[in-house]
Design brief:
Strand order of the largest sheet: 2-10-9-6-5-3-4
Oligomer: single chain
CATH superfamily of the largest domain: Type I PLP-dependent aspartate aminotransferase-like (Major domain)
Distance between the termini: 34 Å
Strand content: 5-15%
Number of domains: 2
Bound molecules: ligand T4K
Length: 409
């Protein structure tokens, strides 16, 4: 780690060497106990059972269902496939209401199946679907609501369920961020008709690629199992349309290994989160996303909103951070509605999404997990504090450098 930053010219943005020699990433994978992982992978290789609902997948499904206190877990090859299979198994059609403030997979999983994602706005306090906005978007074509527990903070589950029941809609959740989180004391995974999880490498808990659908509905679970395996019920007997959504044995081995250390991973993320919170507590205009401390949460994302009082726009701060090798991300800018094909299909969607647009322009996710230690977080905290204190000088220095570049070219 380099240098003290005492004046704008010390910033890498202006040509100084970066604060960190190596990039700090969001989403650095955790591997858990490598020896145990390799032992499991060796067992898979020895058994020559590599996929098709083998013993590792079955053991992983059971371990995950136990962890969540949910009856059925159907492991699949990624979170997007989990969404697609669940949407189909629930017979969703026509229009489904989703937030625009989510990863693009949530919307694509609908559109991929010719179902129109209708983007509802978020509540600016929770950053999750606003039940009032959801209600205002319901039309005779609406068949369901797909809530997303963004950054692991559960949606307004009760209010959404009440709307779904009253209006005769199916409710499911994209819980890609929310493994290990609880709502009113109950683990996420137990709400709506079903919930989907992602175990992508960038998640705090991963299976390289992977995902699962969890539900307490046995009939639905049976449909999901058929759908992930081409519709086969036994050899040579296909009873419905299906796809290949299976998780393989090596991915399940990673999952079983990761589950053994999930509490340690969460503890590490929690310590990182609390350290960031302490280091930026007196930085004006940086609002750290908070968690309900009465609930369980996984602390996998360190998310801040860059507000006006910070003195620089979010994207300028992002440039400064990237120059210093702090690879913060703008999850989920600019919102699904502003990306194709939705931008062209629904050019007016933005008119009903003021809170989504405002948040997507302010938000930044910071490196956490094993990508950072105490020293790195302290240095990032000092950098943020310096930038906030000297925002006017940085702006002026930037303007001066841009003018010099112009006149020399
Ligand atoms: N629903 C929601 C709400 C989601 O957030 C997601 C996925 C899904 C559904 C779909 O689940 P999956 O089908 O993906 O299982 C990443 C992930 O690819 C994606 O899984 C995740 N959400 C999304 C929020 O983030 P990118 O395009 O930003 O990833 P990428 O490759 O830029 O990686 C992010 C950072 O992580 C980089 O700085 C590098 C680092 N990294 C990445 C990989 C893949 C590593 O250090 N090692 C790695 O192996 O989408």
């Amino acid at each position: 780690m380099r240098k003290a930053i005492n004046r704008p010219a010390d910033l890498a943005l202006f040509g100084a060497p970066p604060l960190f020699a190596e990039p700090l990433h969001v989403g650095r994978p955790n591997t858990g106990n490598r020896d145990r992982l390799l032992a499991r992978i060796n067992a898979v290789l020895d058994s020559r059972r590599l996929t098709n609902n083998g013993p590792m997948v079955k053991a992983f499904e059971k371990a995950l269902a136990d962890y969540l206190g949910v009856r059925h877990c159907v492991a699949v090859c990624n979170g997007t496939l989990a969404l697609e299979i669940a949407i189909r198994a629930l017979n969703l059609t026509g229009e489904v209401i989703v937030p625009s403030f989510t990863f693009i997979a949530t919307a694509h999983a609908l559109q991929w199946q010719q179902i129109t994602p209708v983007f509802a706005d978020i509540d600016p306090l929770t950053c999750n679907l606003s039940p009032a906005s959801v209600e205002s978007m319901i039309t005779p074509r609406t068949s369901g609501i797909l809530g997303v527990h963004v950054w692991g903070r559960p949606c307004a589950v009760g209010a959404l369920q009440e709307i779904a029941d009253r209006r005769g809609l199916k409710l499911m959740f994209d819980a890609a961020h929310a493994l290990g989180c609880s709502h009113r004391g109950r683990m996420v995974g137990n709400f709506g008709e079903c919930e989907i999880l992602s175990f992508h490498a960038t998640k705090f808990f991963h299976t390289f690629e992977g995902g699962a659908i969890v539900t307490n509905n046995g009939e639905l679970a049976e449909k999901l199992r058929l759908a992930r395996n081409f519709g086969f019920r036994g050899a040579d007997n296909v009873v419905c349309i299906g796809t290949n959504g299976k998780m393989n044995e090596v991915c399940a081995a990673m999952g079983l290994t990761g589950l053994e250390s999930i509490a340690d991973t969460i503890a590490l993320n929690r310590a990182n989160y609390e350290r960031y919170a302490a280091r930026i507590s007196d930085v004006p205009g940086l609002l750290l996303m908070r968690h309900d401390t009465a609930e369980r949460t996984n602390y996998q994302y360190v998310v801040m909103q860059v507000q006006e009082e910070f003195g620089l726009e979010r994207d300028t701060l992002l440039e400064i951070l990237h120059a210093e090798n702090v690879l913060a991300r703008r999850y989920f800018y600019p919102g699904c509605h502003a990306m194709e094909p939705y931008r062209s299909l629904f050019p007016d969607a933005r008119l009903s999404l003021p809170h989504t647009i405002a948040l997507s322009e302010r938000v930044l996710s910071f490196p956490t997990g094993t990508a950072v230690g105490k020293k790195e977080i302290d240095a990032i905290g000092r950098l943020l504090s310096f930038v906030a204190r000297h925002s006017a000088r940085i702006r002026a220095h930037r303007g001066k450098r841009a003018a010099e570049k112009c006149s020399s070219s």
